[in-house]
Amino acid sequence: MDSFTYISVLLSIVLGLAITQVLLAFRGLILTRAKVKLYTTTLIWAAMALLIPIQAWWADFAMRKNANWTFLALLVIMLQAISIYMIAALVLPNISGEDFVDLREHFFAHRSWFFGALVCANVFSLSKTLTLYGHLPNPVDSAFEFVLCVAAIAGAVTRSEWFHKVLAPAGGLLFAVYIALLFSRL
Q: What are the residue ranges in the chain where pLDDT is below 70?
């Protein structure tokens, strides 16, 4: 087995747990829907939290060509995956059949941590390319990462509900455009 195979197993476990975390939370929302007060902003971020680990796993597949593995590269890659897991873990609450769930309340109670994890994921993504290849990603990827970082920092420090009602769909649109650009390069 080559180095990438070993690394990809660990990476796949963490990203798979992120996907599982969001899917379990969606399942909990469905099963306890009579006790859930929905909030569109949270649901948009939850959908993105489901897509982010999938996109990261796909993007990380390009690392299979790398022959120069270091512990620092592994650490940065894992920190990105852990940050993505934290995005998934924080976006929706743990839901039990007993409690009433208000997604708006949950969002604002944990928004700083959620957006902090989003900033970390982007910083580690940029660091990953720098660590593995000695340069920043291509201009499109770098611009996306930068804009998302700025938006996440704004989301972390801004409590204004109208701002978050605009930021979530804008973030979703930005992510959709980025994914479309990625697929157009394939």
A: 1, 97, 185-186
The span from the CA of 88 to the CA of 51, in Å, is 10
Domain span at 121: 3-184
What is the value of pTM for the model shown?
A: 0.93
C-beta of residue 53 within 8 angstroms of C-beta of residue 84: yes
Count other Cβ atoms within 10 Å, centred on residue 111. Answer: 20
Q: Quick one: how far is CA 10 from the chain centroid?
A: 17
Residue with tokens 């940050």: 83
Residue 59's nearest CA partner among 88, 87, 84, 24 is 84
Domain count, the chain: 1
